[in-house]
Design a protein that fits this description.
- The structure is a homodimer of 463-residue chains.
- Chain A has 463 residues and is mainly α.
- The first copy, chain A, has three domains: 137 residues, MgtE N-terminal fold; 118 residues, CBS-domain, CATH 3.10.580; 178 residues, Tetracycline Repressor, domain 2 (Orthogonal Bundle), CATH 1.10.357.
- Chain A is built from 23 helices and five strands.
- Chain A has a three-stranded mixed beta sheet. A two-stranded antiparallel ribbon of chain A has the order 4-5.
- In chain A, β2 and β3 form a beta hairpin.
- In chain A, α16 packs across α17, α20 runs antiparallel to α21 and α22 packs antiparallel against α23.
- Chain A is globular and about 90 Å long.
- Chains A and B meet through α2, α4, α13, β3 and α14 of A and α2, α4, α13, β3 and α14 of B.
Chain lengths: 463, 463
């Protein structure tokens, strides 16, 4: 904070965030157009790497490539790491091998694996060749883990010490080997001679204790052990539950093998949240910076399935073409039944998918939740079928029609409510993602039950 | 880790997580039934507070009250803090004033405010009375901040030092005042004599540097300043963007006033994610542990609005009753038009709401996103209107009907795609939550446009 905030306010009166951003983008564009690397660097270095990455991402893709070619081996690695996948890949493609190798050398293993992953196989091999044997093998081990596993999330760099060390010895050691320490860390892991994890001492505990205190005495046990093959979603759950900032990763033999930090976990949390939201809305993946074609590709599959399911509903209606032909009020009212049923089902589905994601449904709470959804569907069904039935009565003055729509709606609500929780629970039990496909199945069956019950009952009682 | 993981595995062969949980719940229930506080405490203390809270929450509400009455002033505060709002309130109601006051005394200010907030006004006043004047005023100041502001998220306890202090002085000071330090902290804030924030030194930087290094030289500037009245969503955004673990809160005069830590921010992130997901599905709030009545209450408003919007669609259909009477195929096909349009709109809405939440839509990216959604709606519209039109042709062998449904679908897709991004952007610009009400408005207008265009075109060209 070396600028006076008040004079800054005076110098930039009433610029909106969008205007400030537009100015900064223009400045960056000018620098790129100038063709002088130093000017571009100057602009980028005025900003935090995350902000610089944001600015670059606003530019058209061609300007990104241009910047990468212009800067070459001077492209700042911190900015590169902050860029979104597809933009980062653009830059990585344009950078010369030697610079990339050098950049990767200086990174923690999780970031190094990230950049290596952006490369084509043969280029990756060339760059890996430039590492010393031990380092190369370690990187290869990290990259062998499943993409969504703790092994990929973790970094190989951490700080560990034997339990007989004192606080003073740990601090002295850290000072002497400052360069070798990970960029960021929050705790020191205590290990036995076989590198097995015994506990953890957070840095604020180090600070709180006298130099003479042995680590073995002030360490805390590590409650939830993370193994390298644990799913990243489970890692995120453990971090949230125990309010962790970092956590050790321990292999099958109990040996400390890596460390996961909260910043990466927050990214996982956001990724999982995005996936659930999109899955429930039938989007397979998306990004505000996607192209028209990739947007089309991420949405077309759901819509294609939907064409089929919509026609299934149409076929159900067509069974009752004669009934509709005689009572046109049915065509007018039938969308009400399925619209309300569909919405009631979507509500339950959203709550169930979220509860599953937050691990709130297990054992006895599951039974309670199914009971609650059933009762609530009954209650909503009663209230809204009576409301709809009354409106229908005042519109068409036909008691039988009103009774038919009330019964059909109640049936649809019950189905919607129960399937809204049972479908995701079943998918989860089968090991599938409860969010994906839940809503297709729910909305299709709600349509079928809605049309079938309404038009079927009408055929029996109104004709 | 003082247990041997292998012997544990041998002792508990093949129990599923649900079975382990059931066993633990049974143990806790037995202890409560025994009526002996020590037994309950023993069971609770076997677990991490977060796990103990989870176990309690599986019990029926009456058992929670019973536990609180049984334990009284021995109810473990860490477990209390980990409990969900409504369960925590149950316990707080059953605890005697003196114990509650004592528990609050020992907490960081954010947790203290949380518990105080659970109380009725007069009980809150009684408990606040028990504090010393200075402490009381500080708590009152925290509680005066808006519920979703940084002021509420932050704690008043942090570690600050003048810039001329060395690493050695800071460490010595921390050791001497170990008891007064916050429970958890990750950095030391550097301040001037007027308590204005100059920078921050993370604990791992303290560890890395020699005792003689002055804090003023090793500190990092604080890029994104958080003020007490900043919305918690903005705080979460800053934490994610800059990969923060903690951040100082600075008041209007530049004085350091509090500290926000990542564990609270992760809760905010999850809260905001839940809100967006539920808002898009028309649920006002929910919890897997809700009662039937509160479930009904959280869903009924949307369904009530939906009754009205569904009847608006019915009225649109009723304009064309005569047309449907003559061509019953229209009644059979019309749900296809609105189902596909509605789904295409929901996809766009989900992507837009998420992009807004992740701050990916600003200035020029907004224009690009609107263009992309428009083009993608056109592309999807063309592909799926041709598909539907072909299916309709093979079913009804009526070229005119096929052309009518194709045009209606294209119009509906274009409307759905554009309104899926423009509605949330407009709501955002008006300062409203882009997720709430977006889907009601979108689905209603899609229904109207779908029915109107399909039945209207049919009336003009098919009769």
């Amino acid at each position: 904070m070396d600028r006076d905030p008040e004079s800054e306010l005076a110098a930039e009166p009433e610029l909106t965030e969008d205007e400030i951003e537009a100015e900064q983008v223009a400045e960056l564009e000018d620098a790129i157009d100038s063709g002088r690397p130093q000017e571009v660097l100057d602009v980028l270095e005025q900003h935090h790497p995350a902000d610089a990455a944001d600015l670059l991402e606003i530019l058209p893709r061609s300007a990104i490539t241009e910047t990468a070619e212009l800067l070459g081996d001077r492209f700042p690695t911190p900015v590169l790491l902050e860029m979104r996948d597809e933009y980062r890949e653009l830059v990585v493609e344009s950078l010369p091998d030697e610079h990339l190798a050098e950049a990767i050398h200086n990174l923690d293993s999780d970031d190094a694996a990230l950049l290596l992953d952006d490369l084509e196989d043969d280029r990756q091999a060339v760059i890996l060749e430039s590492f010393k044997k031990g380092e190369r093998e370690e990187l290869e081990r990290v990259m062998a883990f499943d993409e969504e596993s703790a092994g990929r999330l973790m970094q190989r760099e951490f700080v560990a010490a034997p339990e007989f060390w004192t606080v003073g010895e740990a601090v002295d050691h850290a000072r002497e080997h400052a360069e070798a320490l990970p960029d960021v860390f929050f705790e020191i892991y205590v290990i036995d001679p076989a590198f097995r994890l015994l506990g953890a001492v957070s840095l604020h505990t180090i600070l709180r204790n006298q130099r003479s205190a042995p680590l073995g005495e002030i360490m805390q046990p590590v409650r939830a052990e993370i193994s390298p093959d644990m799913d990243q979603e489970d890692v995120a759950y453990i971090f949230q539950k125990y309010d962790l900032t970092s956590a050790p990763v321990v292999d099958e033999s109990g040996r400390l093998t890596g460390m996961v930090t909260i910043d990466d976990v927050v990214d996982v949390i956001q990724e999982e949240n995005r996936e659930d939201l999109f899955a429930l809305s039938g989007v397979s993946s998306a990004d505000a910076f996607d192209t028209v074609l990739s947007t089309f590709r991420s949405r077309a599959p759901w819509l294609a399935v939907n064409v089929l399911t919509a026609f299934v509903a149409s076929i159900v209606i067509s069974f009752f073409a004669q009934t509709i032909d005689q009572i046109v009020a049915l065509a007018i009212l039938m969308p009400v039944v399925v619209a309300l049923g569909g919405n009631a089902g979507s509500q339950t589905l959203a709550v169930s998918v979220r509860a599953l994601a937050e691990r709130e449904l297990s054992g006895s709470t599951t039974r309670r939740a199914i009971f609650r959804e059933g009762m609530s569907a009954l209650l909503n069904g009663l209230v809204f079928s009576i409301a709809v039935s009354l409106i229908a009565y005042f519109w068409f003055r036909d008691v039988k029609l009103s009774v038919v729509i009330a019964i059909a709606m109640l049936a649809t609500f019950l189905w919607a409510g129960l399937s809204g929780i049972i479908i995701p629970l079943t998918l989860k039990r089968l090991g599938a993602d409860p969010a994906v496909a839940s809503s297709v199945f729910l909305l299709t069956t709600v349509d079928i039950i809605g049309f079938l019950s309404f038009l079927g009952l009408a055929t029996v009682f109104l004709l």
